[in-house]
Specification:
Number of strands: 18
CATH superfamily of the largest domain: Outer membrane lipoprotein wza domain like
CATH class of the largest domain: Alpha Beta
Shape: rod-shaped
Oligomer: single chain
Structural class: alpha+beta
Order of helices and strands: HEEEEHEEEEHEEEEEEHEEHEHE
CATH topology of the largest domain: Outer membrane lipoprotein wza fold like
Strand content: 25-35%
Number of domains: 3
């Protein structure tokens, strides 16, 4: 149902090739190109304006033309776009080969992303398809496993596919694998999950003094996170947000206490990891 609704929102344009058929009238089956004036030249009735119409609206216009010229009574007309004149699909953002790609017919979203070399490791999997007619855009979640149902995710010539950058959470300090971790899937990540992705805190870490640095309304705010208590189940796990920095301090004997500005500056050189 959704796929049909999306298809019906697409408008016929100049240069599109239309396949027109009339029920029980095989002699009137035609393939016609929309001319520069936005018309098709129908057998028997001549020019009919179809540019800017959906396929269903064009079918009604063709039927009306045959009725007005008294060739048919209540004809059942079908109009399908067999080839689009606008041959490019643009794929922008976090793909390996962004750019414009030539396509002659509608393609699945997965096919179009493959043309662009697939998603990068830091791609947000909530992908936007901007329709060529600018009337609508849809957001499709593309999971790690392509077996999910993406039947409604159809890309048409002239559309633009936008792949945003995913959020990143940084886990730094006395952990086994400090770095930035991509918030993939549904972009949800908790403190425990983030520390686990960093292969856990080291034995020398001062877990009870773990700090969370978060940007709120343009300003950075800092709070202490009771990591040890969360790990024992004595304190609730916390949901993290994009660009959060979780800092697990070293023991006092190993390192001096770092200020928030020093911790934040180290994110620029941190390695970025994506889950597979």
């Amino acid at each position: 149902m959704q796929a049909q609704k999306v298809h019906e929102s697409l408008l016929i344009g100049h240069g599109d090739l239309l396949h027109i058929s009339v029920f029980r009238e095989p002699d009137l089956e035609q393939k016609l190109r929309v001319n520069d004036a936005g018309d098709i030249d129908l057998d028997l009735v001549g020019a009919v304006k179809v540019a800017g119409l959906t396929s269903a609206e064009a079918a009604k216009a063709v039927a009306r033309a045959y009725e007005q010229e008294r060739y048919l009574n209540h004809p059942q007309v079908s109009v399908l776009v067999e080839e689009y004149a606008t041959q490019n699909v643009s794929v922008l953002g976090q793909v390996n080969r962004p750019g414009a790609f030539s396509v002659a017919t509608a393609r699945s979203l997965l096919d179009v992303l493959a043309l662009a070399g697939g998603l990068t490791e830091i791609a947000d999997r909530h992908v936007t398809i901007q329709r060529a007619n600018k009337r609508e855009s849809i957001v499709i979640f593309v999971p790690n496993h392509a077996a999910a149902d993406l039947q409604t995710a159809t890309v048409y010539p002239g559309d633009t596919v936008l792949v945003p950058k995913a959020g990143v959470v940084y886990v730094l300090g006395d952990v086994a694998r400090p770095g930035g971790y991509v918030m993939q899937d549904e972009a949800k990540l908790t403190v425990l999950q983030a520390v686990a992705m960093a292969s856990g805190a080291n034995r020398t870490a001062k877990e009870d003094e773990t700090r969370l640095i978060r940007k709120v309304n343009g300003n950075y705010r800092e709070q202490t996170v009771a990591l040890k208590e969360i790990e024992k189940g004595k304190a609730p796990d916390m949901q993290l947000e994009a660009d959060d920095v979780l800092y697990v301090p070293f023991s006092m004997g190993r390192n001096m206490v770092l200020g928030a500005s020093s911790i934040l500056s180290s994110t620029s050189s941190a390695a970025i990891y994506a889950a597979h």
